[in-house]
Amino acid sequence: MAERLVDQMTRGLKTLDIQVALAKLLTDYVNLLHKWNRPYNLTAVRRPEDMVIKHVLDSLTLVPYLHSSERLCDVGTGAGLPGIPLALCFPDKEFVLLDSNGKKTRFLYQVRQQLGLNNVSIVEGRVEIYQPQDSFDVVMSRAFADLNRMCHLTAHLLDTEGVWFAMKSQTVDIEIANLVTSVEVSEQIDLVVPGLEEVRQLVVLRRSESKK
Question: pTM for the complete prediction?
């Protein structure tokens, strides 16, 4: 099965125009996730083949939008999504993975050690309490909260010119319509995940000009 997973990952990376040399490391992450999932209940996705699509390739759809960022925080990272796959793609960028669940952060420490992710820091705690020494270019989340709540709880983490990246698995027109005036939508991007025929969107938000 290991070779089949690497082949599946390689095909997905080619579709996303990401270097296929990463296929082995990304598959190693999937294998760790699968191994630890049963005792730690990290994700409802059980099959490694589905993890490749629904977790790793899904996370990697952000790659084209991160090239100008240097310091990124993944809030409510859970099993390290999207932070771990992105950190493997961008070894020169700094990633902080934040989650309040001790089981999940223990898993992340194991992943960081086994995959040699020196550009990843792991923080166990609630986002509203976390006080980083330096602010972030990007605060991102895959399944943390609705847009208003995400921006409210993480505003203290974001640099003045930084952006929020909210990955969504459904349309968010109502959430956008209800946004507070201090936040505005910069972009709303339809994401295409290889092998997945489900709605995926990236909502990029920033502070309103009048609030900077």
Answer: 0.96
pLDDT of residue 120: 98
- CB 86 within 8 Å of CB 45: no
Judge whether 186 and 205 are in contact, CB under 8 Å: yes
C-alpha distances in Å from residue 123, one per residue of 96, 108, 112, 145:
7, 10, 13, 18
Angle at which helices 23-40 and 102-115 cross, to 10°: 150
Cα-only R_g, the chain = 16
As a whole number, mean pLDDT of residues 48-52 equals 97
Return d(Cα 199, Cα 212) in angstroms, integer. 32
Please identify which residue in the block is written with the tokens 């505005």: 184
Assess contact for 95 and 87: CB atoms under 8 A: yes
- Confidence at residue 212, expressed as pLDDT on a 0 to 100 scale: 54
Residue 142 is classified by DSSP as: S
Provide the 8-state DSSP code for 27: H
